[in-house]
Amino acid sequence: MGSVSPAVDAVGYAVYESARPYWNPGIGYLWEVYRTLPFPFEAVLENGKGGEGNPMETILEREISLEAYLGRFKSSSALTAAREKGVELLNESVLRKFREAWGHESKIYTCKYPIYMLAGRVAI
Hints:
This protein is of the alpha+beta class. It contains five helices and four strands; from the N terminus they run H-H-E-E-H-H-H-E-E. The mean pLDDT is 89.
């Protein structure tokens, strides 16, 4: 999940937590930032960075509107799975919390997305 502001992030985190029962089991690797993902390759970066248990980390920054930010949630596989089971996790109450946390609806934030990478080569 990208970071926008403490208030918006708190609402987003609550939505992700409520969606946990609907996540694909493999999503755990993402929540654990790939630290537990089996990676049977030799690390190619200094100090083992990017190898198993030691992902390389960086930040991707993008300008984002409230509409685009909410679109990410609306299209998430977990929220879609919940909706298919008759559970609307992004209901009007939650949308109201997002709007309140966002401030003026036309405000544009810089969203910071953490990126985690593994890079390796076949050991010879």
